[in-house]
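Batch job 17 of 40 flagged for manual review because the log was empty.
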Amino acid sequence: MTEIEIKKEYKGRPKSENPKNDFIRYRVTKADLIKIEEKAKIAGMKVGEFCRESALKKKVVAKQKTTKITGEMLVELKRQGQNLNAITLHYHRNRDHIENAFNSSY
């Protein structure tokens, strides 16, 4: 007799070519979780799929780094402060006249 090889047929979900074996865990508030779940539901996706798509496909705007105050910036800031002080001083010296002029125009 001859030997016949019997090949067992696999009856399950086919193996993915790119399996997702790694995990990322992060904390969110209850409110954030509800928003994410709602957005995923609206998009017709599972939460994990929605988060992956959002993280990988969306353009991320980097937070602006704090810039050093240059000499020019400091001079301009000082000028604006002086202008504000001059306006405030003028108002307090002429408060009655300004309020009367404002009230009489209405």
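Reviewer: the log was empty due to a logging misconfiguration, but the result itself is present. The longest helix spans residues 71-93. Unflagging and moving on to job 18.
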